[in-house]
Amino acid sequence: MFQWLNRLSLGRGQEDWFVKALNKDFRELEFLALDLELTSLDPQSGDILSIGYVPIIEGFICPGEGRHCLISEHSGVGDSAIIHGIRDCDTDDGHTMEEALAELHQARQGRVLLLHHASLDLAFLAKHDNSYSSLLAVDTMRIEYQRRNRQGQAVANSLRLNQCRERYHLPTYKAHNALTDALATAELFLAQMSYMGGEERMSLGEVLSLSR
Question: In what residue span(s) does the Exonuclease domain sit (predicted)?
Fold first, then answer.
């Protein structure tokens, strides 16, 4: 089962634990919900301003283990401050990218990455660490895209994080930063899994298939 995932995982150099976890129920595994705040949506010209992440362990979110890290190395916040509220002065005492990536690397050991719009954030991370260009991750945006597409529902302009959360009756967070968005992504993921599978067993391979 999931031979394509086994081949893809091995071909991308995924760690052994990941390949062995493909047939395990996702509730038995640990995930790391991850979000970035960016200066733009273009990985070539944009910069990472902050990194937020929170783990999910055996189906439970662990907010107390969440982390929010501001990055001091960037070319300037610019107009993106309107969206995320981060000012240049807020990042003056932030971490270097090397420090932030080292912390993230430690936090994601033995955990499956979980993101909303994974391809975008992984592309930004890959600028600084090429290993992110080949990582397999669960994408709540792709899960929602596939679900709405199967149901014949409109997909365009309906996949923002808050829009997806509203369909599962999840509240909107007033505060907006990478950590709260990581938490919001974790909650959305568990709501999606509950909606699709309830208490039935669902393997990591099945979850990854849903987010292709």
Answer: 30-198
Q: C-alpha distances in angstroms, 69 versus 96, 115, 132, 142, 156? A: 10, 17, 18, 26, 32
C-alpha 84: how far from chain center: 17
105-130 confidence digits (pLDDT tens): 999 999 999 999 999 999 999 999 99
User: Closest by alpha carbon to 74, among 45, 41, 101?
Assistant: 45
pLDDT classification of 73: cutoffs 50, 70, 90: low
> Domain spanning 3-210: which superfamily?
Ribonuclease H-like superfamily/Ribonuclease H (3.30.420.10)
DSSP the chain: --HHHHHHHHHTT--HHHHHHTTSBGGGSEEEEEEEEES-S-TTT--EEEEEEEEEETTEE-GGG-EEEEB--SS--GGGHHHH---GGGGTT-B-HHHHHHHHHHHTTT-EEEESSHHHHHHHHHTT-GGGGS---EEHHHHHHHHHHHTT---TT--SHHHHHHHTTPPPPSS-SHHHHHHHHHHHHHHHHHHHHTTS--BHHHHHHHT-
- Nearest by Cα to 81 from 50, 112, 51, 103: 50
7: exposed, middle or buried (Cβ count in 10 Å: 0-12, 13-18, 19+): exposed
